[in-house]
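Tutorial handout. Part one gives the primary structure; part two gives the three-dimensional structure as tokens.
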Amino acid sequence: MVVVHEVGDLGFEDGLVGVRYAHAALAEHTFGAGRGAKRLVLVAVGTGIGLGCRGCLETKSTAPALEREANRVARENPGTVLGRVLAGSAAERVSVSDVKAAADAGVDSARGLLAEAGRWLGTGLATFAATFSPDVIVLGGGMAEMGPALVGAAIEAFEDTGMPYVKRGVRVVPAALGNAAAMNGAVRGLPR
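Part two.
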């Protein structure tokens, strides 16, 4: 996760993690989904860093968490689409890509897995909003590319769990620039 606080002055010292994400946040602010924001929070949700404690956001809404849940569901329900994916997998696991493909094909269990990860993410976004008072929260990383089942659930959970006076005026939006964001931000940050 990256926080860029007071983006307008390009003051990245207010809680930034990682140059790559600093560049991505700068690009989303300059060219993408956070264009014109005074305060932007970029939440990059992907593989996590492996330090999640029980119940924390990383253990519930990252790619490894989704895969863990998908494989549990597949093992417990071998006759389902995800169960058949697991049985036919050379890697002997259901991947995040498998879950997305199944969700895109309308498989309810896959949509449910994405929605559950999204609900956890949205609850975390409500906490970020209360902590950092952004006007825009940009969802980036591979998990944000899982589509409406996850992103929609995250936005709904944000609306349901966020404090009314905090969430008012906060837009939660998917990143517009995808994997190109870091490179675009790096170029934007070059001296002229």
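Part three, for discussion. Strands lie at 2-4, 40-44, 136-140, 171-174. Confidence is low (pLDDT under 50) at residues 5-16.
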